[in-house]
Write the structure tokens for this entry.
Amino acid sequence: MRVLVTGAAGSIGRVLTPGLVDRGHEVVGLDRVPAPDGNDGPWHLVDAADPDAVAAVFAEERLDAVVHLAGYPGEGSLPDSLTSHVVTTAALLDAMVEHDVRRLVYASSNHAVGRTPRTDLLTTTTRPRPDTFYGVGKVAAEAVMSLYADRYGLDAVACRIGSFLPEPETVRHLSTWLSHDDCVRMVEASLTTPAPGFAALYGISANTRGWWDLEAGRALGYDPQDDAEEFADRIDRRDADDAEAAHVGGPFATEEFYRSALDRA
Ligand code: 15L
């Protein structure tokens, strides 16, 4: 497949680009910053929130699918979060409709449901329950994907990623870790599974301590192979661990992340 990867210079993009190339895909990179050293593929220096610039990329490139990773990965004001996550997604979806590109795989986040109290098993049918304006942005981006799947018959898979890291670093990560290799597996399955329509999955590895349902992902062909437990004896307990265990979103669901929606002068 010829895949446009937005945010290709970011932490996930730098892992995913070679991962998809190794699996026989062609990657077209898009980011606000230049391509990282070693990436010799096609590259577009573009802000994904600029619909004209995004449309120009689609006019120039032949594409089979889009993997949308671009977006600020932490908390911000509500308008900034909406621009970063919703406007970028909408700009891509409009260009996809115009150029008949039929599949979007989106780096959504566990923070779309981060304010859900810890339950026995977190399913993908739980109600949207963001823990931050970042999470609000992810919920709204998923809603735009659902709208375009219904209106235009696009396939749009929202991967609610946990903690994408080389290795788990905290007790929470023993449940929420997504390994680099499993991330590539997750995205490839989301790109190639037949006719998912709109679908959501939880992007974590097969963690022994995981409590987010992996079945929705397995139904889409995502078969995680790694387990954070392998690193458990290297992880020190912290005072914050209990508070982080209360909700899906961990630290994002704690008071530390409370802020007003709008920045004022
Ligand atoms: C995310 O979606 C964030 O981008 C990242 O900063 C982490 O907070 C991660 O989730 C997580 O929940 O560990």
Notes: The pocket of D-galactaro-1,5-lactone is lined by residues 73-74, 109-111, 161-163, 176, 250, 252 (CB under 6 Å). The two ends are 47 Å apart (CA to CA). The CA atoms of residues 169 and 235 lie 6 Å apart.
